[in-house]
Design brief:
With about 200 residues, the protein is mainly beta. It has one helix and ten strands.
Length: about 200
Protein backbone atom coordinates (compact mmCIF):
# COMPACT_ATOMS: atom_id res chain seq x y z
CA UNK A 1 0.00 0.00 0.00
CA UNK A 2 1.19 3.53 -0.81
CA UNK A 3 1.31 5.96 2.11
CA UNK A 4 3.42 8.76 0.64
CA UNK A 5 1.68 12.12 0.20
CA UNK A 6 1.89 14.26 -2.93
CA UNK A 7 3.85 16.76 -0.82
CA UNK A 8 4.80 17.29 2.80
CA UNK A 9 3.05 20.45 3.87
CA UNK A 10 1.62 22.29 6.88
CA UNK A 11 3.41 20.43 9.67
CA UNK A 12 6.87 19.24 10.65
CA UNK A 13 8.71 18.26 13.82
CA UNK A 14 11.94 19.90 15.00
CA UNK A 15 14.00 18.35 17.81
CA UNK A 16 17.24 19.82 19.15
CA UNK A 17 19.36 18.07 21.76
CA UNK A 18 22.61 19.25 23.29
CA UNK A 19 25.20 16.52 23.77
CA UNK A 20 24.22 14.41 26.77
CA UNK A 21 20.99 16.39 27.24
CA UNK A 22 17.40 15.63 26.37
CA UNK A 23 15.48 16.22 23.15
CA UNK A 24 13.52 19.44 23.05
CA UNK A 25 10.69 19.87 20.61
CA UNK A 26 10.51 23.27 18.91
CA UNK A 27 7.64 22.81 16.44
CA UNK A 28 5.20 24.80 18.58
CA UNK A 29 7.24 28.02 18.24
CA UNK A 30 8.79 27.47 14.77
CA UNK A 31 7.23 29.14 11.74
CA UNK A 32 9.69 28.21 8.98
CA UNK A 33 12.65 25.88 8.43
CA UNK A 34 15.43 26.56 5.95
CA UNK A 35 18.02 23.90 5.11
CA UNK A 36 21.12 24.73 3.08
CA UNK A 37 22.86 21.43 2.49
CA UNK A 38 26.62 21.77 2.25
CA UNK A 39 27.70 21.94 -1.37
CA UNK A 40 30.10 19.30 -2.75
CA UNK A 41 31.53 21.72 -5.26
CA UNK A 42 34.14 21.28 -7.96
CA UNK A 43 36.65 23.47 -9.74
CA UNK A 44 37.35 22.91 -13.42
CA UNK A 45 40.87 23.58 -14.70
CA UNK A 46 41.28 24.34 -18.39
CA UNK A 47 44.29 22.66 -19.98
CA UNK A 48 46.21 24.18 -22.90
CA UNK A 49 45.26 21.20 -25.07
CA UNK A 50 41.57 22.04 -24.65
CA UNK A 51 40.81 19.38 -22.06
CA UNK A 52 39.45 19.96 -18.57
CA UNK A 53 40.51 18.56 -15.22
CA UNK A 54 38.08 18.37 -12.33
CA UNK A 55 39.23 19.18 -8.81
CA UNK A 56 36.94 18.21 -5.95
CA UNK A 57 36.45 20.76 -3.17
CA UNK A 58 35.75 19.71 0.43
CA UNK A 59 32.05 19.52 1.27
CA UNK A 60 30.80 22.69 2.93
CA UNK A 61 28.90 22.79 6.25
CA UNK A 62 25.12 22.32 6.31
CA UNK A 63 23.13 25.26 7.70
CA UNK A 64 19.69 25.06 9.26
CA UNK A 65 17.75 28.26 9.87
CA UNK A 66 14.64 28.36 12.04
CA UNK A 67 12.26 31.33 12.18
CA UNK A 68 10.79 31.13 15.68
CA UNK A 69 8.72 32.98 18.24
CA UNK A 70 10.43 32.27 21.59
CA UNK A 71 9.02 33.98 24.67
CA UNK A 72 11.76 32.74 27.02
CA UNK A 73 15.55 32.99 26.82
CA UNK A 74 15.96 29.25 27.30
CA UNK A 75 14.10 26.05 28.09
CA UNK A 76 13.92 25.74 31.87
CA UNK A 77 12.42 22.25 32.00
CA UNK A 78 10.47 19.69 30.05
CA UNK A 79 10.65 18.53 26.47
CA UNK A 80 9.04 21.57 24.83
CA UNK A 81 11.64 24.05 23.64
CA UNK A 82 10.85 27.62 24.62
CA UNK A 83 14.14 29.45 23.98
CA UNK A 84 17.60 29.04 22.49
CA UNK A 85 20.28 30.85 24.50
CA UNK A 86 21.03 27.75 26.58
CA UNK A 87 22.00 26.05 23.29
CA UNK A 88 24.15 29.00 22.19
CA UNK A 89 25.95 29.14 25.55
CA UNK A 90 26.51 26.51 28.25
CA UNK A 91 24.43 28.14 30.97
CA UNK A 92 21.68 25.88 32.25
CA UNK A 93 19.84 28.14 34.67
CA UNK A 94 16.43 26.57 35.33
CA UNK A 95 15.37 28.71 38.28
CA UNK A 96 13.21 31.73 37.53
CA UNK A 97 14.09 34.39 36.81
CA UNK A 98 16.17 32.58 34.22
CA UNK A 99 19.47 34.28 33.47
CA UNK A 100 21.86 33.28 30.67
CA UNK A 101 25.31 34.88 30.50
CA UNK A 102 27.39 34.64 27.36
CA UNK A 103 30.53 32.50 27.56
CA UNK A 104 33.23 31.09 25.28
CA UNK A 105 32.00 27.50 25.37
CA UNK A 106 30.23 26.09 22.34
CA UNK A 107 27.95 23.16 23.18
CA UNK A 108 27.54 20.55 20.43
CA UNK A 109 23.98 19.79 19.33
CA UNK A 110 21.94 17.41 17.22
CA UNK A 111 19.01 18.67 15.15
CA UNK A 112 16.39 16.34 13.67
CA UNK A 113 13.62 17.48 11.34
CA UNK A 114 10.78 15.11 10.47
CA UNK A 115 7.97 15.33 7.95
CA UNK A 116 5.49 12.49 8.22
CA UNK A 117 1.93 11.38 7.54
CA UNK A 118 1.95 9.63 10.92
CA UNK A 119 -0.71 11.47 12.94
CA UNK A 120 0.48 9.84 16.17
CA UNK A 121 4.04 11.21 15.87
CA UNK A 122 5.07 13.59 18.65
CA UNK A 123 8.73 14.34 17.96
CA UNK A 124 11.32 14.32 15.19
CA UNK A 125 13.47 11.66 16.88
CA UNK A 126 10.62 9.22 17.48
CA UNK A 127 9.69 6.18 15.40
CA UNK A 128 7.04 6.47 12.72
CA UNK A 129 4.24 4.01 12.07
CA UNK A 130 4.64 1.28 9.47
CA UNK A 131 1.39 2.54 7.91
CA UNK A 132 2.75 6.02 7.26
CA UNK A 133 5.37 7.82 5.19
CA UNK A 134 8.22 9.82 6.65
CA UNK A 135 11.20 11.94 5.66
CA UNK A 136 13.84 12.84 8.25
CA UNK A 137 17.08 14.79 8.29
CA UNK A 138 19.34 14.39 11.32
CA UNK A 139 22.49 16.47 11.74
CA UNK A 140 24.94 15.86 14.59
CA UNK A 141 28.07 17.46 16.07
CA UNK A 142 27.03 20.97 15.13
CA UNK A 143 26.45 24.25 16.88
CA UNK A 144 23.85 26.95 17.37
CA UNK A 145 25.88 29.85 15.97
CA UNK A 146 23.41 32.72 16.23
CA UNK A 147 20.08 33.80 17.67
CA UNK A 148 19.09 37.00 15.87
CA UNK A 149 16.03 38.67 17.36
CA UNK A 150 13.74 41.13 15.61
CA UNK A 151 10.82 43.22 16.80
CA UNK A 152 9.46 45.30 13.95
CA UNK A 153 6.61 47.75 13.91
CA UNK A 154 3.35 45.82 14.06
CA UNK A 155 5.15 42.46 14.18
CA UNK A 156 5.55 39.94 16.97
CA UNK A 157 9.04 39.47 18.44
CA UNK A 158 10.75 36.68 16.57
CA UNK A 159 14.15 35.05 16.37
CA UNK A 160 16.15 33.66 13.49
CA UNK A 161 18.16 30.74 14.86
CA UNK A 162 21.06 29.41 12.81
CA UNK A 163 22.64 26.00 13.34
CA UNK A 164 25.77 24.87 11.47
CA UNK A 165 26.92 21.27 11.05
CA UNK A 166 30.24 20.14 9.58
CA UNK A 167 29.75 17.33 7.06
CA UNK A 168 32.14 14.98 8.89
CA UNK A 169 33.68 14.53 12.33
CA UNK A 170 37.44 14.45 12.95
CA UNK A 171 37.63 10.75 11.99
CA UNK A 172 35.85 11.39 8.68
CA UNK A 173 32.53 9.83 9.72
CA UNK A 174 29.44 11.54 8.31
CA UNK A 175 27.43 13.92 10.52
CA UNK A 176 24.34 14.06 8.28
CA UNK A 177 21.72 11.32 7.92
CA UNK A 178 18.84 11.46 5.44
CA UNK A 179 16.02 8.93 5.89
CA UNK A 180 12.70 8.23 4.19
CA UNK A 181 10.15 5.44 4.27
CA UNK A 182 6.79 4.79 2.69
CA UNK A 183 5.64 1.55 4.25
CA UNK A 184 8.37 0.91 6.80
CA UNK A 185 9.19 2.34 10.19
CA UNK A 186 11.65 5.17 10.55
CA UNK A 187 13.31 4.03 13.77
CA UNK A 188 13.49 6.09 16.95
CA UNK A 189 16.85 7.77 17.45
CA UNK A 190 18.88 7.04 20.55
CA UNK A 191 20.04 9.82 22.83
CA UNK A 192 22.80 11.99 21.39
CA UNK A 193 26.33 12.20 22.78
CA UNK A 194 28.92 14.11 20.73
CA UNK A 195 31.61 12.13 18.96
Amino acid sequence: MVYAPDTYSETAFVSIQSSGGTDREYMTITETIGIKNGAKNIDVKAMIGGGRLVQFNPQEPTEITLECYPVFVSTSSGATGTGFYDLLYTSSDITEPISITNDRTRPKVRCSILWTTDTTATKATGATSVTSAGYRLTCINGYVVSVDEDFGSGDAKKATVKLVFPPFNKAGTGNLTYESAESAILPALSSYTAS
